[in-house]
Amino acid sequence: xxxxxxxxxxxxxxxxxxxxxxxxxxxxxxxxxxxxxxxxxxxxxxxxxxxxxxxxxxxxxxxxxxxxxxxxxxxxxxxxxxxxxxxxxxxxxxxxxxxxxxxxxxxxxxxxxxxxxxxxxxxxxxxxxxxxx
Length: 133
Hints:
3 strands, about 50% helix
C-alpha cells in the first residue's frame, strides 16, 4: 500500500457471483482479477462447493500463475482439508495448479474474531444487567 500497488481483496463467493452476474463475461472477470499486481482471496473454503466452483477457482489460480502474478489465499482449513475439500478429491489438475504456486504458511493461535465476539457478548450482558436494575 505504501508503494501505491493496486491490490484486490475479495473471496471466492463474491468472485463466483461476479462470474454469474448478468452481463458479465467470465473471461473478462478472470482477466480483471489477473490485472491486479496482487490478488488476496480471503476465507477460502466458505463458498458452496460445486464442480463449477472448483473449476472457477482452478481458472483463477492457474491464470494468476501463468501471468506470474502473486496470489495470497487465507483460509481456516487445515492442509488436509485443502487437499480434499469437504471430503471430495478435487481433480489432479486443480491440485497441480494450486501447489505449483503455493507456499503454505500455518499460523496458529487464538482466533481473534472469536475473542472479539466474546468481548461484545460480555459487554451486551453487562448492559442488559444495567437495564434490569
